[in-house]
Design a protein that fits this description.
Layout: H1 5-11, E1 21-22, H2 28-39, E2 50-55, H3 59-73, H4 78-89, E3 93-99, H5 110-130, E4 134-138, H6 146-152, E5 158-168, H7 181-184
Antiparallel strand pairs: 1-5, 2-3, 3-5, 4-5
The chain binds flavin mononucleotide.
Flavin mononucleotide is lined by residues 14-15, 136-140, 160-161, 176.
Amino acid sequence: MIIPSALEALLARYSVGPKHLVEPGPSDAQLALMVQAALRAPDHAELVPYRFKLVRGDAKQGMAILFSNAARDAGKGEEGAALDAERALRPPMTVAVVARIDLGHPQVPAHEQWAAVGGAISNFLTAAHLLGFGGKMLSGAKVRNPTIAAAFCEPGETLLGWIALGTPMRKPAGLARKPHPGQVLIDWHPPCK
Ligand SMILES: Cc1cc2nc3c(=O)[nH]c(=O)nc-3n(C[C@H](O)[C@H](O)[C@H](O)COP(=O)(O)O)c2cc1C
């Protein structure tokens, strides 16, 4: 079987956490390609139930302050607060993923809209990988911090988390183990009458 090179690259995708990311981050043109890829994900009724909010440049400092304050609110000491600030400052850029779920949509239930958000994140990260960048989707208790949520969300939006983005410092020694495809792909049979 011939495996297309794009699929080979996809099969080698891995997440790269903030502490392993360095400059440069993607250019505006590369970011636009990543968003175009996100928009290619399945999306019932084309609701586009998400927004990507880019944190770069001076905005990183503002996010670091929010993160360290949230750490203190959560009872972490100064060391923990500094670690959380570093998570905001270290990656060249961060993309906050915000969902816009229409709970009253007549045709598309909330779970289908969340599926569209997941597909968009996945395509965004895959495009970043194919362009030579590293990234990782992260959330944690911070997303539920009211001050942080209010800073990223408009009314009706939910903060899902952040994608740290940049150039990977090095390749990983190996890829994370995944289940065998046979555990996931299962022949279905109709129930016996
Ligand atoms: C919405 C969402 C939130 C996540 N939050 C975290 C997180 O806070 N911390 C973490 O280590 N991984 C988190 N992950 C998982 C990582 O992004 C990543 O998928 C996982 O580490 C597997 O690595 P891989 O992509 O290299 O297989 C999250 C994934 C998703 C989809």
